[in-house]
Design a protein that fits this description.
Blueprint (H helix, E strand, L loop, with lengths): L1 E5 L7 E2 L2 E2 L1 H17 L4 E5 L10 H15 L3 E5 L6 H5 L9 E3 L10 E4 L5 E7 L5 H4 L15 H22 L6 E6 L1 E2 L18 E2 L15 E5 L5 E3 L17 E4 L16 E8 L2 E9 L6 E6 L1 H4 L11 E6 L8 H8 L3 E6 L19 H13 L5 H19 L2
Helix pairs in contact: 1-2, 8-9
């Protein structure tokens, strides 16, 4: 069976004020063509379909049209991520045809979708897990007459995977042949490499889940592939080399992989090779993983130098990129942004950073790559003249996580 794993579309997102919907539509056109040409049996979208809980109308329209086109050629399974509203994304899911499935309910954890392979028989069992917010999911995942799992990503994911392993082991005892099993999950798995554009999901100061939560020593309940979402860089988590595997090559179980986002959503992603993962699964596990490059609407790059240097031929190759420009003149040139725009019409960020490293006072640089809690503790230091105590740091963390929780529940 051929499965296309993708995630983190973030429909409706902007990049430093640039509307990306047309570029996202081009990616979805590419996806439909890929599904048709490669005869893909199922498409799995592992969360963050939209960029926010209440997406703009054009993003909703784009998703609807794209799902209709994909359903003409294949089966599609979607799960909500931490950016999505599970209730809104899952509204009416019971009315959808069997070609499009949205699993947004925690209560359905551990109940698989049986997707047909090319011969019409069950080609794979897919266990879709919605994003599990510890504060909201732990009570729904509690077994009868037992305490809820701890308030952590590891605990709730472990509880969900216990349901998966129990169900899978029971089914394999009665199967007349081994059916491959795939889990869809939206989480930060230990060992994954993050980017600046993923939203913080810390609870209790921790945002990660150990890789071992998805594996088991019991052969009868081994999951073959974990289709991950949340991190924007395409990557495998765990053993084996990265890269494009040749068709027919065998990868050991259990394979955990992030498909990554189809577009770069921050300058930290400028060197990533965006792709979708085309997977072959058989009764013996994952046969091959091929990374299919996605269309690049416009490159992201960094340029730095004096204004005179930036106007030189050395930067011709980046003239049409989306660029982050650092101007290093000792004094700030007049009309800096306009001068940069003449050379780089698609400049998204323009900053004056003298080569000598001149600083005003002791205020640190603040950007998307800086931990908000570090910024809060720096504020305490600047205003109070001393570092935050352990108790004060705990209060700052709780306040920050409370703000994140309000945002997630919107």
């Amino acid at each position: 069976m051929r499965i296309l794993h993708t995630s983190d579309w973030h429909l409706g997102r902007t990049l430093h004020g640039i509307d990306l919907l047309n570029h996202q539509a081009a990616y979805l056109d590419h996806l439909v063509d890929l599904v048709r040409d490669e005869r893909v049996d199922a498409v799995l979208v592992a969360g963050d379909i939209y960029d926010r809980a209440v997406p703009p109308v054009p993003a909703v329209e784009l998703l609807g049209a794209s799902l209709r086109r994909l359903a003409e050629h294949t089966h599609v399974v979607l799960t909500p991520g931490n950016h999505d509203s599970a209730i809104r994304l899952g509204f009416g899911s019971h009315l959808f045809t069997e070609r499009v499935r949205i699993r947004s309910s925690v209560a359905e954890t551990g109940r698989p979708l049986e997707l047909p392979g090319p011969d019409g028989a069950t080609g794979a069992r897919v266990y879709p897990l919605p994003y599990l917010d510890p504060d909201m999911a732990r009570h729904e995942l509690a077994d009868e007459d037992e305490e809820p799992p701890a308030r952590s990503h590891e605990a709730v994911m472990a509880a969900a995977m216990r349901r998966v392993h129990v169900d899978l082991g029971r089914r394999r005892l009665t199967d007349d042949r081994r059916v491959p099993a795939v889990v869809m999950a939206h989480a930060f798995v230990v060992g994954g490499e993050a980017s600046e554009s993923e939203r913080d999901i810390r609870v209790g100061g921790v945002d990660s889940v150990p890789r071992g939560v998805f594996t088991t020593a019991l052969t009868d309940s081994t999951v073959d592939y974990v289709a991950l979402g949340h991190l924007h860089g395409p990557q495998r988590v765990g053993p084996a080399a990265e890269g494009i595997a040749p068709r027919g090559a065998h990868e050991p179980r259990t394979v955990l992989r992030y498909a990554g986002s189809p577009l770069a959503y921050s300058f930290s992603e400028q060197t990533q090779r965006k792709s979708s993962a085309l997977i072959e699964v058989t009764g013996t596990g994952v046969g091959a993983v091929e990374l299919v490059p996605t269309p690049v609407p416009r490159r992201l790059s960094d340029v730095a130098g004096t204004l005179e240097e930036l106007r030189g031929r050395a930067f011709d190759a980046q003239a049409e990129d989306w660029v982050r420009v650092s101007v290093t003149d000792d004094s700030r040139p007049p009309d800096l942004r306009a001068a940069v725009a003449q050379r780089f019409p698609h400049a998204l960020v323009v900053q004056h950073r003298p080569a000598a490293g001149t600083r005003v006072g002791s205020t640190p640089r603040i950007d998307a790559g800086i931990d908000p809690l570090e910024i809060a503790e720096q504020f305490v230091l600047e205003v109070g003249g001393r570092r935050a105590t352990l108790d004060e740091a705990a209060v700052l963390r709780l306040a920050y996580e409370g703000a994140l929780a309000v945002d997630r529940s919107a």
